[in-house]
Amino acid sequence: MEPVEGQFDFSYLDALLPQAREHGVKLVLLWFGTWKNTSPGYVPAWVKRDNARFPRMRTKEGKTHYALSPHGEATLEADKKAFVALMHYLKEKDADNTVIMVQPENEVGVYQQGRDHSAKANRLFASAVPTKLGKRGTWTQAFGDGAEAAFNAWHTARYIDDIAAAGKAIKPLPMYVNAAVGDPFAALGKSGGASGGPDWQVIDVWKAAAPHIDLVAPDLYTRDAKNYVKFLDHYTRPDNALMVPETGNAADFARFLWPTLGRGGIGWAPFGMDETGYSNHPLGAVTLDNATLDSFARPYAFLKPMMRGWARLAALHAGWGTAKGAPDTEQSRVMGKWKITAKYGEWQFGSMDSPWLKAAPPPNADQPVGGMAVLQVAADQFIIVGTDIRVNVGQAQQSDEDAGTTMKVEEGTLADDGSFVARRVMNGDQTDYGLNFTAQPMLLRVTMGTYR
C-alpha cells in the first residue's frame, strides 16, 4: 500500500470493496504491517533494506534476526502512519461499513528465540515490570520461566495497541489480534507458540497492555480434538469473545465448528477456501475437492439463516459443545439438573452395544466427524444443533421421588429474535434411542420434565 514512503496506493481496496458489496458480504481486513506470520514479508522494500532506521531483532550472540523489533520507534511510526491512512480511506469510502472489523498485524511475535536481545531490549528486560501487570521486580523475578514471552508480549502488544488506538481515532471499528499458538498443556514458557503474540499463557499480559484490542484469537490447526477443545477453553473468557479466525480446511476440522459455537464463539473460519491452487497441507486439505467443501458448506448453509437468532440466544444463555475425539470428560456436561451426553458411531435406531441388535457400524464410525452445540434456554429446555452424533439428555442426579423424561422434541429453526420456529415434532421411533444427528445438520428444541 506504500511502495514509496508517503505515497499510498489504495487500488486493492478500490477493487475489493465494490466486489464485496456486489456479492452482499461483509469484510474483515487483515493488515500485514510489521508482522505477517512473525516476519516482515509485507513491509515495503524501503523498510526491509534500512535496518539502521527500522531495526530487526538481535540474537543472544548479537547477530541480526529475521523479525523486526517491537522496540523500533521509527518502525512503529511508519506502520502507524500507513494504518491511519487506511482508516481514513475506510472512513471516506466505506460509510456503510462493508468492512466490519480489522486485524492489525498477523500472527505477531517471533520464532527461534523468546525476545529481542538488542542493547535497548536488554536494558528494558533488566528493569522493573510495568505496574499495570500487578507484579513486582524484574521480568525474570516476576514471571520466572515465562519471563521472555511475557516481556515480548508486553512490548509487542503496546506497539500494536498504539497503532490500533490511532486507527480507532479515525474510524472506531472493532480490532483483534490472532495468535500462532503452541501447546495448550505446556509448562510456563514452554508453549512453543510465537513468542510475543497473544498465546494462551500471556493473554493477561495482552489484556493489560492493549486495551484498544477488542479480542485476542487463536489460529487453530491441530487435528487433535483434545488440544483443540483446550485452546477453545483458554480463549473463552469473560473479558474475551471467542473467535477462531483461522483453522484447517481439511474435512476433519469441520467438526470443531460445534464446540466453538457451544462456547459462544462469534467467528470460525477455515483457511484457504478458494481455488488458487494453494494448499497448506499438512495443516489443511491436500486438495480442496467437492467432498471437502461440502463438509463445511453443509453446516454453513444450514446455520446462515438462523445465525442472528443463535447469537442472541448464545449471548443470554449458558452453552456447551463437543466434537468427536475430545476426551471422555468433554463428552458430557451437567447443565442445571440435566446431564447432556454425546456418543458417536451409532445408527439412528438401536444401540451398537445392545446384546440383541446386531449390525455393522455406520460408515462414518471410524471417521473424525461429528459434534454438537447446545444452549440451555430454560431450566428444562435446550436448543441442540450438530451432525453425526447421538445426544442424550437425562437427570444429572437420580432421584427416588422424581424420574426424568423427555416431554417433547421438536425439529426446526430460529428466527432473528431467537424464537424457535417448529417444523415438526419428532416421534418415538426418532427419540427412543437418543437424539440422532446425521450428516445433514439439524436443530432441535428439547423439553424435559419429571414424573413421580
Give the structure's gist in a few sentences.
With about 450 residues, the chain is of the alpha+beta class.
Q: How would you summarize the topology of this molecule?
A:
Blueprint (H helix, E strand, L loop, with lengths): L10 H13 L3 E10 L8 H4 L7 E3 L5 E5 L4 H21 L5 E8 L12 H8 L12 H5 L3 H24 L5 E5 L22 H7 L5 E6 L4 H11 L7 E5 L9 H6 L4 E4 L19 H14 L3 H10 L2 E5 L8 E4 L2 E6 L27 E8 L2 E7 L1 E7 L7 E12 L5 E6 L2 H4 L3 E3 L4 E10 L1
Parallel strand pairs: 1-4, 5-6, 6-7, 7-8
Antiparallel strand pairs: 2-3, 9-12, 10-11, 11-14, 12-13, 13-18, 14-17, 15-16, 15-18
Helix pairs in contact: 3-6, 6-7
Task: Explain the overall architecture.
This protein starts with 10 loop residues before the first helix and ends with a strand. With 452 residues, the protein is an alpha+beta fold. The protein has helices at 11-23, 45-48, 73-93, 119-126, 139-143, 147-170, 203-209, 225-235, 257-262, 290-303, 307-316, 428-431; strands spanning 27-36, 56-58, 64-68, 99-106, 176-180, 215-220, 243-247, 267-270, 319-323, 332-335, 338-343, 371-378, 381-387, 389-395, 403-414, 420-425, 435-437, 442-451. It contains 12 helices and 18 strands. The longest helix is centred in the middle third of the chain and has 24 residues, at 147-170. Helix 3 packs parallel to helix 6 (147-170) and helix 6 (147-170) crosses helix 7. Strand 6, helix 8 and strand 7 (243-247) form a beta-alpha-beta unit. 28% of the residues lie in helices and 25% in strands. The protein has a 6-stranded antiparallel beta sheet.
